[in-house]
Structure prediction request, 552 residues.
Amino acid sequence: MAVARPQSVLDRSFTPAATAGTGGTAVGGGDAAGRAGDPAAGTGAPAGTGAPAGTADLAAGAGAVPLLPVVGGDLDIPLVGGGRTRHVNLDYAASAPSLTSAADEVARLLPYSASVHRGAGFASQVCTAVYEDARAEVARFLGARPDDTVIFTRNTTDAVNLLARAVAHLPEGPGRVVVLDLEHHANLLPWSAQHRVVVPVRSTLAGTLDALAEALRAEPTALVAVTGASNVTGERLPLADVVRLAQAHGARVFVDAAQLAPHRRIDLAVLGVDYLALSGHKLYAPFGAGALVGRADWLRLAPPYLAGGGAVRDVSLRPPTAVPSPDENGPSPAENGPPSPEVTWADVPARHEAGTPNLPGAAALAAACRALAALPAGALAAHDDALRARLEGGLAGLPGVRVLRLWTDADRDDTGNADTMDSDTRDGHTGDTAPVGVVAFTVEGRDPDALAAYLSAEHGISLRAGRFCAHPLLGRLGASGGALRASVGVGTTAADVDRLLTAVREYLTTGPSWRYSRGPGGWAPDGDDRLLPGWASGAPAAPTPAASPCDT
Prediction:
């Protein structure tokens, strides 16, 4: 069956004023970085775009078509029993599809494959320029301060571990780190157990901020490490309030933006966030690239994250220190001990980027940043909000379905534009806290893994089932046995959401059409006749789910 490519929002006509410039207001603002008006005050317009006129029009049609074209947006996949359908990807929070512009950037770069920073040839010069331009692009996208550093990493987990290494080697000794119990394991486990304080969240954002303030008053703290948006519920902390609390107690702030950056613009300089990490594979770039962005001083003082080429300025071999000889006739000969390396380490960012870098990953990440920045003001948030509202409202109308939520006061958008953060104070916290397009839910009496297997096998819909590498949070939410998570992005449409809602309704009313059994890798249809592509398996074979080492 031929499948037509979904129309992109970019296929529609926007006025030049709407598409020029940086693509909209950022969480935290923008004038300080020379990029936008002052959304921290809820006013102002992106530089070069005029007032964000047409926001109401964007909201009215939001979600009808993809916001940006993605690779695999028209992917045709098999169904159990022999049918085929267009794949509906509602698992963006795990790994988002690559933007076509990011894939095109990689294809354009590959013919120039050569060494970065270490070659005199023309291709090497091209690669070096692309790599450093990518660093600058990521900094611009995030509103980094002029003296901030951008270190390319493998992903968010890698970036958090790098920062944790720096915090453990502060001149005054290992720093105390305060985190909340809602965090993804990547922002919970890397921090030293001896110096990590986990604060349980309360039922409201205001109460959670009070608990955080209490923890900061208890003992001097080096860093407050929080998520920008929950990878389970999509709910957001008011980052401006977190920064104010931390600064009042002499602490810095780190934001895990793996889930926030794909849904909202961020401005580090205006918010006052000190460090931020993100993953390319969640920001519409291929696998294997991420970034840690922030203040250079702690990172400059830290031991290199990896030792090796590219992270050093000079290496020499120091003669071994003479030691007394057993016969007491004088020092032992030098050959009794090997020479030891004496290293002068490079400054950041090279200090923490040993080895040949992932140039295609960095270039693709930068291309994704450019594409998102070029969107019309408010378009990203309008698309995201419309899809989440449709998804959450539809699920709430199904019998036995419970949408998981943390806070009772987390749905506010004070400014009328969810891209922005307002400075007004209400309900004990400030700014927009409208959740992003990540929705977790349970179905009473149903195994989430079994429902996920049915959605994939009979409807061609991908979403996530499990505990989402946030086991403490799932336990707090009363879903220690796991849940389902649907997440949307720039390639998602309202029709995709409706397909999920229809499929879940059918499951609850008429049940699956196929018999399913639970094996070592989870639930799967009996006699599954869907074949993996030969190039993916070495030979055609029915797909067998692999069990996740962390129970997803």
